[in-house]
Description:
Elements (H helix, E strand, L loop, with lengths): L32 H7 L5 H15 L4 H18 L2 H17 L3 H17 L3 H17 L3 H16 L11 H17 L3 H17 L4 H17 L3 H12 L6 H20 L3 H18 L2 H17 L3 H21 L24 H24 L7 H63 L2 H54 L3 H22 L4 E2 H18 L4 E7 L8 E3 L5 H12 L6 E10 L2 E8 L4 H11 L7 H13 L7 E8 L5 E11 L1 E2 L1
Parallel strand pairs: 2-4
Antiparallel strand pairs: 1-3, 3-8, 4-5, 5-7, 6-7
Helix pairs in contact: 1-2, 2-3, 2-4, 3-4, 4-5, 5-6, 6-7, 6-8, 7-8, 8-9, 9-10, 10-11, 10-12, 11-12, 12-13, 13-14, 14-15, 15-16, 16-17, 18-19, 18-23, 19-20
Amino acid sequence: MARFTGIIFILFLSGLASSYGQVVYQATVWYDLDSLESVLPNQEGTEKINTLNRIAATLCFEDFDESLRYAKKALELSHEVGYKEGIASATRFIGHAYYYNGEYPKALDFLWKSRNEYEVLNNNPLVGNLLLDMTVVHAAAKNYDKALEIINEALETFRNLDPGGTRIGSVLDTLVVYSTMAMIMRLSGRADSALNIYTLYLDVGNKTNLELTNMMVHLGNAADACIKSGNADSALFYYREGLRYPEINQSIIILKKEFKRRIGMVHLLGGRVDSATINLTEAFQSLSQHGFLMQSQQASQYLGEIYLKMNDLSKSRFYFNESEKLLEEELKNLSFYRYDSLKYTVSLGWEVLAPLSKKFIKELIYNNAVSFYGKMIQYSKAGLFTEDYTRFLEAYVSVKDTLTEIERKRELIEIQTKFDTERKEEEIITLSQENELKEYQIKQSRVILFGLVGVLLLGIAFVFLFIRQNRLKEEQEKTNLQQKLFRTQMNPHFIFNSLSSIQHLVMNEEPEKASIFLAMFSTLVRNVLNSSVNNAITIEEEVKTIESYLALQKIRYSDKFDFIVDVDPQIDTGFITIPPMLAQPFIENAIEHGMKYKMDKGQIDIRFKLAGDFIIFEVEDNGIGRKIANEMKSKNAPGHQSMAIGITQERINVLNRKKKRKIHLNIIDLKDETGNPAGTKVVIDIPFEVV
């Protein structure tokens, strides 16, 4: 069974479906076929092309020939009218059809072409999805190293920002990437790494209220990783967590019976025969009654073996007979299900994100048949069920021959896929080398041509370089002066507010508070002055400055708000440096505008997070929000204009001129469940340096 896990969790990842109630394939392009076919005859142009592509997408795992026919028709019409999106989609769905038909090299060829089309169209989300498509094809071909290489490229694509500063991939996109990555880890023997990813997946899923069927499937995946790691108790924990889920749909009801079957198998492996018998019996009765052939066949086979070891030949014969009947039904229909409608129910867990290919289902059925009849032959040779020995032997030879042929074809495809991938990579390298050689030859020709007048141009070049060097030096000095100017503009504003607060305390005859405030203020000013002479300071120094500033403001506003400064434990605060006081104006705005007019006590959260080569700096408040704050400001101080955003954006622009990795600023207006303003969140992505 283990040798077939290489294709049991193959996904075609096209963005999660909008509704989890009716659509089972949550990460697959899938439409209502009857509706599409009814509107197709009356359509023209791009509308018709889109419908053809949707039909091709829906049929790709059901009817290879028909899917190919619709996709090729869409491709032909797209070329005729110059519809590039139609070309990219049709090419992709042709790749899908070849994948589900088990023709991996052709699938990769078309998926690669589709990816290139979407890159030209600057459709980065679909570029990420195409990378996921190629990942699962390589995983199906057991080309795991290449699959991991491509999945990491997909992750980087989804993490990138679009021109508006928003991440290309959603949280769900990232979850699907990690789920696929964990699948590859499991298949390639790295169950511990897979379990770490599944644990993260379930944690994020709980926090984001991910659909329960999806969550339950990933509980099962985590349990499988535990079993592969030799930790049966942890596996049982995950299965029992799933049994607590509310039965909100048929998939969860059936998955609970499947979990019972798996719990029974874990108990059996652990020698707990009574518990195994109870769970397997319950799973068999329910799954067989509802028509889930493969699972009930396996449950009954295990029950037959349990009763055989208990020397209860009558019950053993009963369950072996039931197992054989179910297996014969699977072989006859080449399906895991008695009824066609059942394949749209999540029962195994594998199919929550994508359908299973017919080739895979056929291979697994024949593999189970070989296992069953092989064991029955062994029992017959041992003196049991001897009257059926000839029948078992004939059935075994028949299914074994078929399975051998299936495996041989699959192995040839896997070898061809790896070979074609290596050949394509070599062609790319060769083409790159040829281009470099051509560029070198062109440069060499230019050198010879311009060498004739080189002596004359040499003097001009020296003059040009001298002037250019001076200009660059002047620009650099100007940039340094601008940075210091921005900090100078910031510090007086804060100093004025702080001195006003001290004056207020003195005038109100509160000398003790004034003394404390003045001592804290002097410490903070010293930190700010130290920061102002440096282009970068450590996270530790920045945190101290922020905490001092917020503590002063909290005193000034009579404990009107609380604050938290949270630093990611992965950040080495004493060695990682960033530009100083980037977020100070926004912290000030959060207090002056978010908290000032808030009726109840406020909260300001400052966070430093590590994300690759960036520090994610967040300032979040639960104040009255920018819109209401602006209205209050216009009413109470009509002539006042806040310079915080403008100054900081100018400063970021100046800093970005000298950086390959850019600083990004994003301001988010928070809303509550009813859509009313619930504060403001400022996110600054800052590339850091290590001292």
